[in-house]
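Narrative summary of target 7.
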Amino acid sequence: MRVRLQGHRLLPIVRLTGIFLTSFFLMWTASAGAGGAGESPRGAVHVGTYEGVINPVAAEYINHVLAVAQEAGAAAVVLRLDTPGGLDTSMRLIIKDITASPIPVIVYVAPSGGRAASAGVFILYAAHIAAMAPGTNVGAAHPVAMGGGEMDAVMKAKVENDAAAYLKSIAEKRGRNVQWADDAVRKSVSVTEKEALSLKVIDLIAEDVPSLLAAVEGREIATGAGKGVLRTKGAPLQETAMGWRLEALKALSDPNIAFILMTLGTIGLIAELYNPGAILPGIVGAISLILAFYSLQTLPINYAGVLLILLGVVLFILEIKVVSYGLLSLGGIASMVLGALLLVKTDAPFMKVSLSVIIPTVVTFGGLLLVVTWMAVKSQMRRPVTGSESMVGMIAVARTELAPRGKVLLQGELWDAVSEEPIHEGEEADVQAVAGLTLTVKPHRR
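Modeled conformation, tokenized:
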């Protein structure tokens, strides 16, 4: 009774502890997923920072920054940007969000050494105020084949004209240099921050965010909600971090990570198929492949590259089954390297899989696959340790004369035995086969 009473008294405590831990986890997850956006005073300036390729993660993050700023009644939003370019679809989503924002959006190319290239030029032009830090550059907005390899002359002209018209329309709307916008697309021109200011590509140069906000104080801005005057000098800053979820998705969008995940997933599934019941390799492989598929859907994928990678895997497996004196292994390595080089179908170097990742991954993959497959084959060739088959190869002792039949002692048991050669009592005999309760033996020779 006393034990039950103590358990009854502990039950509410356990429940409360569980509720507390669950609530704490949900609150932590919500705060992490929200990108660290907490309460901020009205009139604060919200700051978002994005470094890397413009992709769906960038579009979602910038949309989140603008939504949080609008909900908080921010005075303005500063987007610190450092990008080599990226996907056209994601870029256009970002520009739509900036254009429709009722809050002034300042795109600030920073830090020193940063750039706004390709898609970054479009985003910088779309801002209500465009600014750059010292030591940065902008330009090279010529469209590349992000969706499918080399373009023919007609398609190239269509894409180029579309991009030029789009950037020129943005430039006219924001009152920026239209001719330079056309040259940035058609001639891939690039300029420093001082040249950009003199060409009226940007509005100002600023050392940091506070000096930027002081410089734009009192400027009249036309937003989606109408005209307004900026009151940003000395305004409190509210950082809107990307959050662990978007950081993870951003990492997964890296083509190098996609290639590594695809390789790990393939190794895991092959290991599970060769050793059913191992479980862990199958789980790791399945998760890796799912993450790889997410990563690949954010990239312009060449399916010929995917098929070459899979062919390389098949060739590695066949090397274990077929005697090719290493030719299949060499073919597998060549196939995987070519597949990795062709995996991302684009002319943009920052979107391709790096050779410094391809070579170690392929070599490691080949080594691990050979080890795993050899262990699987070795386990299948191992002599049985249970049942009648396990007695084959054991040494028995003759208890009677075998000429050709008699009795032998094996593992403490008497067995009927038959031998083609005479075996005398007390001599050792090797078990050759088992048929029912009769052993086929032959004289043991040391």
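The longest helix spans residues 2-33.
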